[in-house]
Amino acid sequence: MKKPEKSSVDRRSFLKAAASSGAALVAGAQAMAAQQAERVSATAAATPADVEAVDEGRPGSDFMMDVLKPLGFEYVTVNPHSDSGGLQESIINYTGNRNPELITCLHEEAAVAMAHGFFKIEGKPLASLIYSSVGLQHASMAVYSAFCDRVPVYLLLGNGLENPNSRSAQDPAAMVRDFTKWDDSPISLSHFAASAVRAYSVAMTPPTMPVAITVDKQLQEDPVPKGARLHVPKYSPNTPPQGDSGAVSEVARLLVNAEFPVLAVERAARTEAGLRHIIELAELLQAAVVDTIQRMNFPSRNPLSQESNVIRNADVVLALEHPLLSRSSLKQGAKLVSISSFDLFTRSKYWHFGRYQEADLPIAADAEATLPALIEEVKRLITPDRQRAFEARRAKLVESSQRNRDRDRVLASQGWDGRPLSTARIAAELWEQIKNKDWSLVSRSDGMSDWAWKLWSFEKYYHHIGQSGSVGVGYSNPASVGAALANRKYGRISINLQNDGDFMFLPSTLWTAAHHKIPMLTVMNNNRAYNQEVMVVARMAGRRNRDMTKCHIGNAIDNPAIDYSQLAKSMGWYAEGPIDNPNELGPAIRRALAVVERGEPALLDTITQPN
Amino acid sequence: MNHRNLCVISGRPAVWLWGAMLMILAAPAAFAEAQQRSPATQTPSADAETIDKGKRNFVTYACYACHGHSGQGSDSGPRIDTNRLSFTAFSRYVREPAGSMPQYKTQSQISDAALTEIYTYLKSIPPPPDPKSIPLLNDE
Prior knowledge:
heterodimer, A: alpha/beta, Rossmann fold, 4 domains, five-stranded parallel sheet, disordered N terminus, B: mainly alpha, 0% strand
């Protein structure tokens, strides 16, 4: 890499000069002239010593980039702030704003949620450059979502204590320590190097989670000390923890001998390989698979994919990275086996872990890493007799799957031509136009009443990105842009089925997508209310024998109705709508997809039925 | 039935609890059972004005929020556009529902007249098309 020449301009003098200039602007032209004269004088007086200081070495933030660049961050999401200026400048001018490239975000929550969505497609974390106190408070909800969803996000927290300002913090990472896996506040460049690489390693070792490194402003801006012997540690990924071989053999024995085993999968597939392993295990056993679609664990149209009520019939349930599956959902006497990395690391404060699971055979290990050994053991134990039983089981599951699909078609036909639009109709119209393309659903996979999941054929790992983890509103819009950013280099069409309530948390994310030329199609699920909360209030009013006609208050997003099309256009998107005529839907999707295929974002504002 | 154990209620942390509540709320089995028990009596007249009032009441009393504007159902409530209940049974169910459906117990909460109009509106909704006749729903 070509490194820039050392500048002969002193950084501190430049900053002093800039500060003086800023004050002068406020004071007026006459005062400015006086200030400038003073500044020139001061600079001239200080020049020899300061030039010498700069000649001592390059800025600390350049070395920080020497550490961060080999970790492979493609992008750094940022909302700019004063305490990361050194690092931001090094990204721009030292590493040329390429691998990583800065992605400008207009809110810190968007910066982190974009990183969340990016990882779900690419399997690599983004770094987010966040202002220590004020920025991290904005970002904290997105950090919590990533934590609950087992997604590594790499937080770099700019902070200044040597010359503190009103935004400086003593220990900024404390704010998110209850929902991050590890953090540190390096006090030297060598400390930074070790902790930055350690943080990456910790984040990427299952259970994967967010980490935070507080990056001192002065450490970024000061020159590397003369004679400093700095070393960039080599990162080697940890081997993920596999289950004990004896326990794995016992699981295989239980599964092969079971009359009706069920694989209950939540965050089981971390990668495409995990998806293939789950398919192989299910098909070896002809076992039902119940998927909570938090990850792309199993193909939606595989006939072994079943609804959750089959768990009641199981004599053995294998829960893969599914710590919330309750024993109470099993029949009496059924065995519950768990392979999960959940107990290998968790935090106490937030009850994302639910009730204690009461598994008969809990294996603390990464499910994806353990599956190959389990598959081999199952193969070894299958006898011809068991194989015949498996085939009979398959036939029943195929029948059940077909019944479910037929029922879904009937349900989808209801309100087919209605106004507002049926969400099933939107999903079907979209599928018709993307099914022969390389596509990716980048919003919550259960959006629009699960219709995409019911009507589309999800097969590849990138076909959907799961859900938010926290069920927090505001995740989907920025996460979808992050996932679409990851899809861009593969030329995939990213589809975002966007709830209106979620959208309005961070509408500025649209500008980021347009500015960075991130192609994606957003289809609004614009039903103009938090409709499920209407029901919650109605239930309260009913119980209290009060007025039932005002339950929309506090829940409706209407009067005025938000014009999402105009909003999107104002931020550089192609947009159409509002659309409430079902006959206009197909042509509008066709026009919008043409825009996306030429590399731009497009939005359709569709007026929809409640979920 | 929603086959996810994560409900789609926006942004509230007690996920498993909400999931359980929604399963109860949907209560399609209870509604179907009520339909089977119901004698087919007392069908109100279906003039256009009554249907129109019923459609408006369906929104005013927030029925649409769970059952959809055309009674087609949603994640939160079952399909009711094809209900076979008599008006008497329908009214009884609304006044004393099963599961977690909001209870419209008294005349002050919803009058019999308004309920009659809603019933008439629901009865007027034409049956959905045969899914086999919709090419977009027959993709394999």
